[in-house]
Amino acid sequence: MTVAISIEAVTKQFQNYQALDEVSFDIKEGEFFTLLGPSGCGKTTLLRLLGGFEQTTTGSIKLFGDEIEELPANKRPINTVFQHYSLFPHLTIHENIQFGLKMLGVGKQEREQRADEMLALVQLETFAARKPHQLSGGQQQRVALARALAPRPKLLLLDEPLSALDLKLRQSMRFELKKIQKQTGITFVFVTHDQEEALTMSDRIAVMSAGNLQQLGTPVEIYEEPANEFVANFIGETNLLSVNVLTKTEDSASIEIQAESEHFSHSKAITVPYQHRILIGPTAKLSIRPERISLFPANNETAPCHLTGVIKESVYMGTDTQYVVTLETGGELLTRNQNVTNAEAVFVAGDKVNIAFDLPTARLLRG
């Protein structure tokens, strides 16, 4: 697949801090690519470098093989949709969409034709004559998207464009954005701090922290195979247990959970997969997602058991019930059990339980 954007050892140094530290990766043509991370991680700085609103300190950025460092923002075949849509209040929706085309010198007939096409794409044909204040937040967001797409850019940058919308509208717009991206075939680079947005919309995700790329992969790879503790903690919920590595083979290791309680010396040895360099000894963490843990009554002698504990708290959450379990080894574990009509057991605070891990989905990480 053709590489749309090539980011090579990019560093961005501001006066008081370094926003990016030799970041390198490629973005493929026609991809919905997401830059994900907490505030201050460097994702918006990287987006601004792509758009030409900032200049790199070192490194290079190429668009379809061509250096774009010297191109000003208005000369790049790139458009941006910001968090605040900045529609012109005195212009109609149709005129707003035409505005960028007019600045590019596109003739009136073609401008109007493209505006019609874009309104159809975002399903706002009947709103062409309205002013922005007559539209809802979600409709204004779609107009901003249509305006950015009208010049047919090679790359569309989206800087947290859904963050101002309410939850229900934000969820529906995720699917609208993804559908529009597929219909146009334009490469989208989307910036967000919302893990659910990234997982549901992206072809690939770059997880960033403190100016560094932590992991690059598909949503499934990022969630199921986190590269380190930061990614495991940032993407969804996880339990991180300190473990002793007893033995190891090429792709698995025998481990035991480290005891945090002086009244408990060790746990049963269990075997888990791993993909990173792991040392023998107390040098690793086991990442296990809450939904990959099963609880059984302590008197169930036939059920699998990797740890034991006592229910500290249960919270009914509709689709599932969240349990906090105090472990016999010390520390706590968070689990989520789906609520089904034929559930074998519902636990309350004080119940003793056996804990079983879905071992193939557990991930052993360097400590």
Structural description of this entry:
The protein has about 375 residues and is α+β, with helices and mostly antiparallel strands. The chain folds into 2 domains: about 5-230, Rossmann fold (3-Layer(aba) Sandwich), CATH 3.40.50; about 235-365, Nucleic acid-binding proteins (OB fold (Dihydrolipoamide Acetyltransferase, E2P)), CATH 2.40.50. It has helices at about 45-50, 95-105, 110-120, 135-150, 165-185, 195-200, 220-225, 230-235, and strands at about 5-15, 20-30, 30-35, 60-65, 65, 80, 155-160, 185-190, 205-210, 210-215, 240-250, 250-255, 270-275, 280-290, 295, 305-315, 320-325, 330-340, 350-355, 365. The strands form 4 sheets. Strands 6-7-8-3-9-10 form a 6-stranded mixed beta sheet, sandwiched between helices. A 5-stranded antiparallel beta sheet has the order 13-12-11-14-20. β11 and β12 form a beta hairpin. The chain is elongated, with a radius of gyration of 25 Å. The two termini are about 35 Å apart.
